[in-house]
Structures are given as structure tokens and as C-alpha cells.
Design goal:
41% of the residues lie in helices and 15% in strands. By secondary structure, the chain is of the alpha/beta class. It starts with a helix and ends in a 9-residue tail after the last helix. The structure holds adenosine-5'-triphosphate (ATP) and magnesium ion.
Length: 299
């Protein structure tokens, strides 16, 4: 079975083996962010991250799905001029997927640094997305990196890597729908300073949707208002309400000329739930915000 992690790791390996993307002079060239990512701050998170980075504090970003955590890290990596290596964690991920492994190639067996080791050696920001999805025996490899030692033991290679002065570890997770079993171990959690994310205030969120989709601000504002109503259903039929990401998807369909009801049905109602009653309740919310559905479905 090919997992997302495999795909991610394969593309990682391809990047690392492609001389056009990386060089001896800058092994992380492929991970540099050249263009400023669009990021709309909602508080003092940029300054706080900046201060945390000055001491290379490991950071935990908490918050619901699709609220801007990844975009924020991309923005900060660009601002700090550090390469960013992102890994989506899952339960099939092993410690070797993080630190590296011996692989057979033309010359025999050779060690290949994994994404974490690469960031540790060469001074990148390593971002482990949805870290609670990884098994606890995998997450413990980050422990000696995230305390005063800042070291990464490569047991299979018999090497102790001392972190580059620019290295920083950032992890994210969504506390909303984690089961107790999947929560972070206390000994892991207490190694991180935390920044809590939520959906931005309505005006800011509408601005993000407008900027990302080119729909009018008024329409974006209505989508945000709908999203707020769905967020009120959290734990009352929904694990999470509609995210900023979903509103952007809705806006992209609207930009294509799809009707507001069809757009919201595809990107919000059907995406949020499989339960017919909850879907009906969500469709009614859409009608409450945008009026009843007419027979004409597309503009
Ligand atoms: N503050 C923001 N500034 C700019 N764009 C944002 C912001 N917040 C959200 N977005 C938009 O929402 C999309 C989803 O955000 P992002 O992928 O960063 O979410 P996330 O919190 O990492 O979600 P997940 O937990 O599912 O990984 C982004 O691609 C971006 O278009
Ligand atoms: Mg993300």
C-alpha cells in the first residue's frame, strides 16, 4: 500500500537526488521559499514566532484544520530566510522516515539523510504537520533535539548529529478531534512553546477569501458568516465547522461561475458530513444565508 508518507518521502528523495534542486553548496536549495507567501496576520503571532526563533525554541502550532498554520510557517520561513522541510505525519511513519536509512544504489549501500536529519545538519526549519498521527515511538526521536542538547542520534549509522545553529523544529496539531490515545505525550508536549491558532476575525477572514479567490468582499463576507454558523455546530453533529480553506474552495467554484448553492454543497455541506440529517441542516443554513435554491444551478 502506498501511503501519503511514501509519496511525500519519495518526492523528498527525488528532490534530494536531483542535482538541479540541490547542490553540495546548498543541500537545502530545493526547500528555500523565494517568493513571499501571502499571509494575513491576526495578532502578534509573527513577532512571537520571531522571538521564539531567536532562541531556536521548538514551537507547537495548535488550531483547527485549514486555519492558516502551514501558511504561517511558510511565511515565517520566507521571512527568516530559512529553508522549510515539511512532513505530513501518519501512523505508518517510522523513525527511519524521519532520520534516514541505508538504501541500495549503483555504488552499493549508501546512507540517505531523512528530512529531519537534513534540516538538523544544514539549518532548516523542519515542520511536522499533524504530529499526533505519528506513533509515539517515532516522535521520541525528536526529544534530544528539543531540549538543551539539540542533538540527533542516528543509531543505525552510529552518528550523533549536533543541530546546526539555525535549525528549528515546528510541529502542529489539531486538539479538536484528537482522541485521548492520540494526544501528545506530556514529555513531548513540554518541550515546545505553543502558539494557538483559530479562524481569523470575520473581516480578516473575508479579506483572505477575497485575496485567494478574487470573489467580491461582500460575497466572501457572506461565506464567512455561513462558516461561523457551521462552527457553532461543532460537537453538535460536526467535529469541526467550515474552515477558511473550505471557504476558499467555495470561492474558487464561485469564480468559475458555479452557483452559490452548488459551490457550498460541494465544498461545505458534502465535505463536512456524511450524515443525511446533518447535511440537511447544513443545506438549510446555506439557504438561510443565500436564499432558497432556484432551479437554475449555474451562472
Ligand atoms: N492568515 C492567513 N493568511 C493567508 N491565507 C490564509 C490564512 N489563513 C488561512 N489561509 C488560507 O487558508 C488555506 C488553508 O490554510 P493552511 O493550509 O495554512 O491551514 P492549516 O491550519 O495548516 O490546516 P491543516 O491543519 O489542515 O494542515 C491556505 O492555503 C490559505 O489560502
Ligand atoms: Mg497544514
Amino acid at each position: 500500500m502506498v501511503t501519503f508518507m511514501d509519496i511525500h518521502t519519495n518526492s523528498f528523495m527525488q528532490k534530494m537526488q536531483n542535482p538541479a534542486n540541490s547542490s553540495d553548496a546548498d543541500p537545502l536549495a530545493a526547500y528555500r521559499i523565494e517568493q513571499q507567501p501571502y499571509y494575513q496576520p491576526w495578532g502578534n503571532e509573527i513577532a512571537l514566532y520571531h522571538h521564539a526563533y531567536q532562541s531556536r525554541l521548538p514551537l507547537l502550532l495548535k488550531g483547527p484544520t485549514g486555519c492558516g498554520k502551514t501558511r504561517f510557517v511558510e511565511y515565517m520561513a520566507w521571512m527568516l530566510k530559512r529553508p522549510l522541510i515539511t512532513l505530513a505525519c501518519n501512523e505508518d511513519m517510522t523513525a527511519s522516515d524521519l532520520v534516514g536509512r541505508y538504501l541500495l544504489d549503483a555504488g552499493g549501500t549508501a546512507w540517505h539523510d531523512g528530512p529531519l536529519t537534513l534540516a538538523v545538519r544544514h539549518g532548516g526549519i523542519c515542520y511536522l504537520d499533524e504530529v499526533v498521527e505519528a506513533r509515539q515511538d517515532t516522535t521520541v526521536v525528536i526529544h534530544p533535539l528539543t531540549d538543551a542538547r539539540r542533538i540527533l542520534p542516528l543509531d543505525k549509522k552510529g552518528e550523533l548529529v549536533h543541530a546546526h545553529p539555525d535549525f528549528q523544529l515546528v510541529i502542529s496539531y489539531n486538539p479538536g478531534y484528537q482522541s485521548h490515545v492520540k494526544d501528545l505525550k506530556t514529555s513531548t508536549r513540554q518541550r515546545f512553546a505553543a502558539l494557538e491558532f483559530d479562524y481569523p476575525l470575520p473581516e480578516l477572514e473575508a479579506g483572505i477569501v477575497t485575496r485567494e479567490t478574487d470573489i467580491s468582499h461582500a460575497l466572501a463576507r457572506q461565506l464567512v458568516s455561513l462558516a461561523q454558523s457551521t462552527r457553532a455546530l461543532k460537537n453538535r453533529g460536526l467535529d469541526e465547522g467550515a474552515s477558511t480553506r473550505m471557504l476558499i474552495y467555495a470561492g474558487l467554484l464561485l469564480r468559475e461561475g458555479v452557483s452559490v448553492h452548488d459551490s457550498c454543497e460541494m465544498t461545505i455541506t458534502r465535505a463536512l458530513t456524511d450524515d443525511p440529517d446533518t447535511a440537511l441542516a447544513l443545506s438549510q443554513l446555506v439557504e438561510a444565508h443565500f436564499g432558497p435554491r432556484t432551479l437554475t444551478t449555474s451562472a
